[in-house]
Amino acid sequence: MMFMRKFSYLIILAGILIMLYPKANEWYNDWQQQKLLEEAEQAYSESAPSTSPESDLSKQYARVTQLLADESSGDQAEATEPPSPEIRLGGKITGIIQIDKINLKLPILEGATKANMKHAAAHMQETAAIGQVGNAAIAAHRSRTAGRLFNRLNEVAIGDTISVQTSGHDYRYVVYDISIVEPTDVSVLNGRGDDKILTLITCDPLVNPTHRLIIHAKMS
């Protein structure tokens, strides 16, 4: 009788832990994001050097859009993988992106890798450096959790301001174009003469995405 009672308690406890795990995982990811943000605010690394786009940029862009699609399920995908004790990021923090309209403030890591994009926005190092002539592309997941990563990017409108702060610089871009394109449309990374362009990339729609939401902004 005593054994059965203990066994019942164990089953109940296991059920509670299973229900709490997704929320605990979300808290952990938010903590990691905040940790990166605080690190960026306290001391920026040196600005990333300007890099020339690779001859086969379409392959790099395809890799990034595939990463967005692979993790588009957001919280559901995260719930199936236990968080690692500590993130080992492949890139370095190059700045902070902020969009006041949607209450967004994220660290930007150099290199659009799976590890970097799990908790932050990522600059495609194959594109122009942030603040320089050309098209600087930043990608982030559109988590289903309200307010996380690029979840609310669809609320941005033409004329809105996007701020990007790097070591010693504070750049301001104004949104001039918003589009929803096929995942293979690499033309979104094209430059515009001597303009300094910022391109934000994420999935669309939020659930079962088939396309990419693209925000184009020009330095004001």
UniProtKB/TrEMBL annotation:
Pfam name, any one: Sortase
InterPro entries attached to this UniProt entry: Sortase, Sortase_D_2, Sortase_dom-sf
CDD domains linked to this entry: Sortase_D_2
SUPFAM superfamilies, per the entry: Sortase
Keywords for the protein's UniProt record, in alphabetical order: Hydrolase
Keyword Transmembrane helix carried by entry: no
Origin: domain of life: Bacteria
Cited NCBIfam families: sortase_fam (TIGR01076)
Identification of the protein by name: Class C sortase
